[in-house]
Structures are given as structure tokens and as C-alpha cells.
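ingest -> validate -> predict -> emit
validate: passed (alphabet ok, no gaps, 333 aa)
predict: started
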Amino acid sequence: MRIGRQTVKLDNPPVIIETSSIVGVKEGEGPLRSAFDKVLTDDTLGEKSWEKSESMLQKQTMLLALEKATLAQGDIDYILAGDLLNQCVGAHYSVRDFDIPFLGLYGACSTMTESMSIGSMLVGGGFANHVMCLTSSHFCSSEKQFRNPLEYGGQRTPSAQWTVTGAGCAILASKGSGPRITHVTTGKVIDKGVTDISNMGAAMAPAAIDTLLAHFNDTGIKPDEYDMIVTGDLGVIGSDILVELMMEEGFDIRENHRDCGKMIYDIEKQDVHAGGSGCGCCGSVFCGYIYRELKRHNLKKILVMATGALMNPMVVEQGESIPAVAHAVTIEN
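emit:
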């Protein structure tokens, strides 16, 4: 099934039979409000810490996906899940009440398509019938870990992005109706020397370019064959870099490129600076708006590519640059 250095074409492409998406208050004020399954009225979800809030967010999203798919826990062969927190505690604590084999993932903001990539290969290779792919992020838990306590009130730079409070869950199956994942392109770790922790778009764009070039070269698919080329959370700055440098490589993606970090918020009216970010950005937008458009057949063939900055505050403070990765999946009706 391997058709290139980084891409596989699945002979038995798995079906995305159902998704679920839950977002926070601010995300519910954006232009995609009606596309999410649930908009929270309280970002604490009734919990006593932001970390517990994020775990509860994941748990509720998983339960909702099972309910929508009319599946029981025993029908799921694997949960593939991750988040932004140290040791992926958001996912670990959310799945401890589920009697389902679990694989924890960390790809930073690329985790949604990382989970879908691995899940696709598990199902497509005959190793599972149902796989649950899940990611989340929470503005408050992420800000607390990566930048400053919220109470500090530090000023945000214009290049900074707003971490999405949201979660998305996709259930992949060997049989059923729905859009199918036909190709998986796995990214490499790319580091171009960016050191500004407040400019994730610039750090992640080179990884997106590398994976996108690998995908086009491995598959022979042209950009205009896709109704939409979706990136996870490059935001305003990263998206501009991606489009410009892809043009220099001979690929024009201006007409069909969209970025979840630009889609989830009203950039002009909401105070999010360069747009959205976080695992829950791609997770909620894909499992909400984009999956709905696929099911309605408004989209026939898309490429979804989430990007992640693979750093933590400690190594950045030690003077390290910010490596990044991007993983892509082709989804077709």
C-alpha cells in the first residue's frame, strides 16, 4: 500500500461513520457555532481545575460520539487520543473510565490527523473494526502550562494565536456509510530555527510545506483535484507563509486552502490576534463543520493536514528552536 517515501494508499479505506464536537463559550461565538454538536455555557464543565475540565471535555465528546454512532464501548477496538498537557493527562484521565484498549498520542496540534492516520492504518490493515480518534485543547489549561497563569494578564503579541477550547472525536470503521480515508501522508520533524514561542504559525508552516510537497509528489494528485486543502491551525501568519512558499514550489493552493484557526473565529471581531490553535482547533472544526459538509456532499475530496509545534517552555527557555510536524489524510466521498 506504500506509494512513496511518506504516503500510503489504503486498499481498504476506512469509513468515518460518525463524529462529535464540543467547543467552549468563545468558540461558540464564532461563525461555525451551528456546526458543533454542543457549545458549552461554562468552560469549567463543573470541575475544580482546568486540567479536570479538559478531561471532562474529552469524556463528554467520546460519549457523544458513541451515542451518535449507536455503538457501545465494547464495539470500539482502540482509542487513539492526545492533548497538549504534560504526559497527555487530559486524555489519560478521560479514558480511565472506559474499558477500551488505549494508545496515547502526542503530536501537539497535529494530534487529530496523527490519530486519524494511525487509526486508518489499523482499520485498513485489518487490525481493528472500530477505532476512536480523539483530541482536545483548553485555553486555560494550555495558557497555564505554556505561557503564564491567566491571573498574570501578560500582553499577547500580534502573532500569538488563541488556544481553542474544544474537542473532536471521529469513529473509523471497516464497514458502513460515510466519507473514507484513502491516503495517509506522515510528516517529518522540520526545524527552521524559529525561536519565538508567540509565533507558532511561522514555526509550523515549514512542516506543512514539507508534508504537502511529499503528498503531491508521492500521489501525483494535483492541488486543484481537492475541493479543500485544510490545515489545522497555522492561523493568519502561517497560512500566508504556506501559500506563498507553495507558489514558489510550483503549487497554487490559493483557491482551495482553508485553515481551521482562521475558520473557527471571526478574526476581525473576536480578540484572537492571529487566529486559533490547539489540538481542539482541527479536532472540533473537522468533526463539526467539515464532516457535516462531507456528509451533505458539499465536499467530495479533501486533504486535512494538522500541524504541531513540538516544544515545551523548558527547552525554549534553554534557547532551543521550535521543531514542528504535519500529518495529512485524504478523505473522499
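The mean pLDDT is 95.
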